[in-house]
Amino acid sequence: MPPAELLPDVEAFGFSAQGPWTVVDDELTWRQGLDHLRNAARDSVPRMLEPGRVPPLWRVAAVCARVGAALGVWYATERRQDQSARRRALSRRLRTAFAHLGPTYIKMGQIISSGEGLFPEELVGEFKQLRDRVPPETFEHVRRVVEADLGRPLDQVFARFDREPIAAASIAQVHGAQLLTGEEVVVKVQRPRVNQLVHDDIRAMAWLAPKLIGRIPIAALANPPALVELFAETIVEELDFRLEAENMLDIARVLAQTDQRAVIVPRPHPMLVTRRVLVMQRLDGFAWDDAAGMQGAGVDTQAVLHAGLVSFMEGAMLHGVFHGDLHGGNLRVRDDGTTVLLDFGITGRMDQQQRLAFLFLLVGATTGDTRGQLRALRDLGAFPPDADLDVIITDLGLDRAFVDPTMLSGDELLHELQELTKQLLAHGARVPKELMLLVKNLLFLDGSIATLAPDLDIIGELEAVHTEIAIRHGERLAAEMGIDMSEATFDPEAVKVAMGVDPSIETLTYRDVQERRDTIRRNLESNRPVRRPGVRRKRA
Question: For the chain, what is the domain count?
């Protein structure tokens, strides 16, 4: 399309070249007072987490009954199946229970579904259904909410409003529609009683969390109360769609400022945005995991993956703003290879100190600077401000030789994990919100390689991303960090060692990584000693 035909808002925002309307900041009346609303949402979290408050007993009973019934039926009828079938059955029953428990538990399931490599694949696969296949609300409820929030009957705004939703998830469901003025749009409508249910669930979790300290070792890595606080901070801003619409504009502005045009954001409507209703431009495309469909249309799926990774890294590194909930349900790929970002309820926002810490973390990871990485993690809030980095390095064994984890027996792997957890807890390690969102997104993009580019050389791709960002933004980043970028060159051997693979390996594809993970899982499941011919290497 000739540049002269671009809509004027494309210069300021990462939108499509053509659109149903033009977004002009000063004309968005729904943006008034959003700073106050965002601060009020954040300030509500400590009140929900106040210790000693009596939890909503009705909600505690409902959760215990639903989850307890799912576990009871599984234990009585399916636990004697082979391991894979047993896991699938348990995952299915838990997914069904979470779906019936409503928005808070559906959101928890969505987070689990993004944890490929962290959670069992059966659980991840089953919980993916909670992204957009949750039982929908009735059309009567949808009509009531839309008409109440827009202040007009449905037929005075829309020429068509589809009764069946395109997708139904935790907080809301999405319907296709056409405005009276002819534009095709998507309408996001909040579920009933979401606000009250979320607050009740968080209060119940806050009451229960301290009682779990010391009883769930792995979860204790962030400690249960901190996990509840993290979850509350993540979900509370999703309850006001005006904040989500502003998130859309902020991400779109970052995409434009970094000149990243391979990823776009739908335009929110200039007027039809309220606390419970969000009308936006409709942008369709291939599902993120439909590699065959994309390739059949001539889309370079490897380029799609590369653009997604670069745009995510640029947003976090340069502006401290990034989409906080990347998963397959929130991404579409158009025929021209452009990726459409959807669902901006969770958006990561780092202040200047956090953003610089993230930059130093990346530099340390790509150059093999272990102490620099720990310092950056401390500045991000993963360790207490007074944490002694030298002691942490010693206690975690980061200054000692290590063995390829695929060469460890199940007993040895369990021992290593238990010792690591013990030492991290001893040093007050936790997972702050922004770091959790960053890691979750990176895990998702890592898992996407399996579908979009299974033969991609992962080390080579990481180096390509590093080089591209250094060329485009290296001068600015070096000035902000106060370093000489020539001393922060990409070290492929350090990256390989950090990933637990032999530095002599020339290429590492996703198939190679998956084979290694399968070996580790089999060793853990078998608990049988295996021969350890691996070469001991000093940890980077």
Answer: 4
